Amino acid sequence: MAKCKFCGKDAGLLRGVHQECQVIFEAEKSQVEDLAASAATSKTELKKLENKLTEMKSNSFLSEADFKEILISAFDIAVAEALEDDLLEESEEDALVSYMKHFDLKQDDINEENSYTKLIQAGILRDTLEGKISERVRIQGHLPFNLLKSERIIYVYNQVEYHEPRSRTTYSGSSSGVNVRIAKGVYYRIGGFKGTPQVTSQITHVDTGVFAITNKHIYFTGSSKSFRVAYPKIVSFSPYTDGLGIQRDATSAKPQIFSGIDGWFVYNLVMNLSKLAL
Ligand SMILES: [Zn+2]
Fold first, then answer.
1. Is 114 exposed, middle or buried (0-12, 13-18, 19+ CB in 10 A)?
2. What spacing in Å lies between the alpha carbon of 102 and ligand 1's midpoint?
3. Fewer CB near the terminus (10 Å): N or C of the chain?
4. 233-252 tens-digit pLDDT
């Protein structure tokens, strides 16, 4: 005889749970998840969630570990929904940070789905769209770049692959994202990036290294190739789900493609930085 893990009563031979207990468990779970997802982007909803949690902790099938898991998945849902249509608003960002603090969620807890990274990236984009130089990223260690005096690092990726096309005709990219105007800049919504191509094998992998975005340049340093490109020298940017292509302002220049980055974030960032740099 096995005992039901939810109600603790006999569940019969070979069965771990009562089906009706499982149904109640699932219903409780989605109820908390819905409340938590709205609480994550609205401070007023946080109190409601807190009351519900107090009530359910003494009387529900959810365990302490279940609650924590739900609070984390609700955070992921809230970040994804908040970014789907337009850029994260300041009030939404504040609420997400308050939610993290309130439930003592650590960066590592909430970054399994990259939600924490997306939150930081959305903040950087909002700063940039408002014409500010974002300083949300702390660089640990020494970067292999020789920055200008007034230059600021905005974001850095490691292990980025640098590619060049095999022939001039095999490469194309286009933005299918709907533009949303925010403040001074233009934002291409995250949902639109699902339609952009991935970096394909039609290109040659040249080197792998550090890729950095500053307020003035794009930098790349690998073991054999090292260069920087100033925004006014770039005539077009191509978005990929996992990369960025740039075309320099010279008839002989080949397209240059970086992969292993967040296409949505980097494309929005460089498009708007290049407008600021004009
Ligand atoms: Zn049961």
1. middle
2. 32
3. C
4. 999 998 899 999 999 988 88
